[in-house]
Here is the input.
Amino acid sequence: MIDPEEIKLFERDGAVCLRQRFDSDWLDCLSRGFERNLAEPGPYATTYTPPGNPGGYRDDLMNWARIPEYSHFIHESPAAAIAGELTRSRHCRILLENMLTKEPGTLEGSPWHQDLPYYCVDGNKLCSVWVPLDVIPKPACVEFVAGSHRWRRRYTPIKFADETAYEYPDGTFDAPPDMQTILDNHEVLSWALEPGDCLVFHMLSLHRAPSTRGLLHRRRAFSTRWVGDDAVYVERPGPVFPDFPPPRPAVGEPMDHPSFPIVWRRDAES
Here is the structure.
């Protein structure tokens, strides 16, 4: 399923585009899940487009336990194996899932950020598998700063609603980066995507999603977040996802909890 060169690209750049890894049955399954999710939003559903602005940017997360199409995709699709192979893990657990929709002409994007500081997990074998359900031209594709996952930085999380930084005690995270300097000195990766393709990126990769200004159709994507065998539980002095019931693992211990089941294991002969 995964070529050794794709693993090397992921390890070097922190983001890789894999072509046609999900067939039409999986895309249809996710489309049905999206419609169910939009009709029945979860407690974490958010709309980022202010009233009166064109388009509409919405997301929702942590719904796979109640939306059967999401659960089916997580447990049966190639996503877990892709994450496990690219992170060279012995096993992969699902951390959470995230659905994202942008209507045509949406002006709002997401700010430059890393995913890891928002989550209750740390480690290196951590990635997202981002599956588009629609054609996405390169100007509307997620963008990544190549190699930024290797900088040993954990930047303060940014609020998507107003792009201001969360307030944390000094020393919790690195200050938000000077993105103009970074963009002037580093390669930015993005791709034109077709349904069936996917992006896989490290949870420390700096990335953002642009607006869909000029796009004539909806941009939908489904992102599953995976943690490999070096992932450990952490607590943070501020907002963190996912919220899950106690008893929780001890800080620094593996993410061994029913909320994060192991979905994929490496064949013993591999």
Observations:
- The radius of gyration is 18 Å.
